[in-house]
Amino acid sequence: MIDMDPRTIASVVAAGLTIAMPAQAMAQDETGEVAGLQRQVEELKAREAAALERVDELEARLSKVEAFASRFDGLEPIGVDEAVTMRGRYVAPQAHAMPPDRPLAYFQQNEQASQGLGTGPAGGSETEGEDRKSPAPTEVVEAVTEQRQGHFGRRFGIDFGLGYSHFSNARINLDGFLALDTIFLGTISIDKATSDIFTLDPTISVGLSDKFVIDANIPYLVRSTNFQSGGAGGNASGLVEDTVHDDGLGDINIGASYRLSRESANRPDLVLNARVKFPTGRDPYGIEFVDVPNSQGNLQVPRRLSTGTGVYSASIGLSALKTLDPMVVFASVNYYHNFERHFGDIDEAPGSQPGKVDVGDATQFGAGLAYALNDKSSISMSYSQRIVQRSRIKLDDQIFKRIVGSQGNVALVNLGGTFSLGENLTLITNVGIGLTDDSPDMAVSIRIPYRF
Question: Cβ contacts of residue 298 below 8 Å, gap of 6+?
């Protein structure tokens, strides 16, 4: 056994403790660093998991987008012509010249915006090159379009119409001969006839597609004609008159309209129209004339008045319309053909005189414009003219003969107004003024179409 000094032993123990304490501190530092690194690794793993989850979510959304886009493979993008037919009218981007005085242009732009006139380079806040849309067509513009072209895109519609026409005709009848080329020997009478016609003509229309519409019109007429004659009995001041009243169903007609092309930025709305009329009204042929009492044979009036033409007829036409907001311009041309028909009596003389009647064909054209005053009302002006060819008649076992003076030229100037009473209800008014002897002196109509 080795004897050691206590101080020596204390020195050895102190030296050992001195060597062990740094080693223990170092071990503790290494343990803390490892724990920190482990925490960082865990955080990185959590971020990676979140990133992978986000990637999976984006891939799922991309798959849905690709599946939806596959439905439109092969479709061309919407162009300017197609976009203009949408509810919001497309306006192609336009280049604007750079203003010479930018501060002044900016001030004017802000002033227009404050007054509600629009913003932007020329009254708009959009930058150059952006797609812009003008306001959707107003209710009254749509009403004018349906009035002229038809209610395409709607399934069913009812149109209640009421019309009034006034005709007047005066003539001088000479029954005698000229003596010495200067003196007339015989009787002179002055005849005048005024006629008032009231028409109730409801129309039912059905849209078979967005391009094809059919309609049926069923008119009912109430007629009143006053006949006057001066010079009765050889008395220059003698005046006699008589009035004939009648009413009845008119000629029922059926029509069809087919839209050839929709309105676009560069072309108008084109519609092809066709109509067939049936002789359901009372025909004007074979009506006997009777003498008016106390007229000494100077005035004869018909026993009844007609409510139809008495013949089948068909027409075909083309109408065009272009919207130049706030104005709408329109034009049309139509051709009417009347078919020959045989009647048991075609003459006003007593007794039956059977034969055929060939009513002259007619050509009609017209044009006009409507101007929108606001979203609910507009005024319109138009001109229409119908040129009627001569009619012919033929008694049995004879040849056709032309009826002298049966040709006609009917020209009207129309002034109207359209008022939107709701999304499906419209009030249409029109006053026509005759310009020729064959035209009515005046024609007034009121129509109230209702669309379902």
Answer: 187, 189, 229, 231, 232, 233, 238, 240
